[in-house]
Write a structure and sequence with these properties.
This protein is α+β, with helices and mostly antiparallel strands. It has two domains: about 1-80; about 85-270, no CATH class. Helices cover about 35% and strands about 30% of the residues. The chain has five helices and 17 strands. The strands form four sheets. Strands 5, 9, 10, 12, 13, 16 and 17 form a seven-stranded antiparallel beta sheet that branches. A hairpin with a 2-residue loop joins strand 7 (about 160) and strand 8 (about 165-170). It starts with a helix and ends with a helix.
């Protein structure tokens, strides 16, 4: 009798255990379903947030695009009325060897041009001496309005030029005999530029050129800043650069020498514009919006 009771208890226990197992499995499946539902809810929420963000961004892009169109129209008007300056360059004279010690003595650079030696034996000792070229030319105001011209690195002068048939007077200065100068429509001005640098930098420029690598130095550069009338917040900048390698050597062990057959070039760079603060703000904003990908070239156009 006791055995039958034990068997009944065992069967009952087995039935309870089986029910508990089935219940646990059901609960686990329900938990997985709930977790999946929660995950789907999170994904749906993320999708809604992304859609809201995209809608806001599109709205912002639309507004920015309208603003860009208005401001670029203003820029186009400025470009259309920008100063039109024509620059002509005479044959370059030089090279001239400028002794650093002599220059320190009285500062008269023009009178210290001497015939340079054919060999440069010690770059270190003579590294502070300069080799320079005299660049002369004319600038003509081809705009329908008067323009202010502020030369940087060059000086305006009075005299004659091969590029103009008449005597050239010094333009009227607006600041007690100093820049800026006023160029009337069609007026021509003569400029002179003592373009050069130290022997050390000339050597480094040639080494970079010969080894086809970037140079830490740059060729001599001068600049003209000009604007229409008194609109001094809208500058047009024109750089001129002397492209020359007056010093060279045949190998790393050979001495430096002056190349009398060096072909000289003066590059007149494309004009750059300096716009009012409102348009400068636009230029900064363009870097931070997707809408600008097709519009950045507006700011880089010549």
């Amino acid at each position: 009798m006791e055995d039958w009771i034990a068997i009944g208890i065992s069967l009952a226990s087995f039935g309870v255990s089986g029910w508990a197992l089935r219940y646990a499995r059901t609960q686990a499946a329900a938990a997985r379903i709930q977790a999946q539902a929660a995950c789907e809810q999170v994904q749906a929420a993320e999708k809604q947030v992304l859609q809201a963000y995209e809608a806001a961004r599109e709205s912002n892009r639309f507004g920015l695009a309208n603003e860009i169109a208005v401001l670029d129209a203003a820029r186009s008007r400025i470009d259309a009325n920008a100063p039109n300056l024509i620059i002509g360059i005479e044959a370059i004279k030089g090279p001239h060897w400028i002794s650093y010690q002599t220059f320190l003595k009285d500062g008269d650079m023009a009178s210290k041009s001497i015939t340079p030696p054919t060999d440069i034996k010690d770059r270190g000792v003579q590294g502070l001496d300069n080799i320079e070229f005299l660049v002369r030319g004319v600038i003509r105001n081809d705009s329908p309005s008067s323009i202010q011209v502020r030369p940087e690195g060059v000086r305006l002068a009075e005299g004659e030029s091969q590029l103009h048939p008449e005597h050239i007077d010094l333009p009227m200065a607006l600041n007690l005999g100093r820049a800026p100068y006023l160029l009337l429509p069609g007026q021509v001005a003569l400029f002179e530029w003592q373009a050069g640098t130290s022997i050390k930098e000339w050597c480094e420029l040639y080494e970079s050129y010969a080894n086809d690598r970037p140079s830490t130095n740059s060729h001599p550069t001068a600049r003209f800043r000009c604007c229409l009338g008194d609109r001094t917040n809208e500058w047009t900048i024109i750089d001129i650069e002397l492209d020359a390698y007056p010093l060279r050597r045949d190998s790393d062990s050979s001495p430096w020498r002056l190349d009398p057959d060096e072909i000289l070039h003066v590059r007149v760079r494309s004009p750059k514009r300096v716009y009012p603060k409102t348009l400068q703000w636009l230029k900064r904003e363009l870097k931070d919006h997707l809408v600008v990908d097709d519009l950045k070239d507006w700011w880089d156009r010549e």
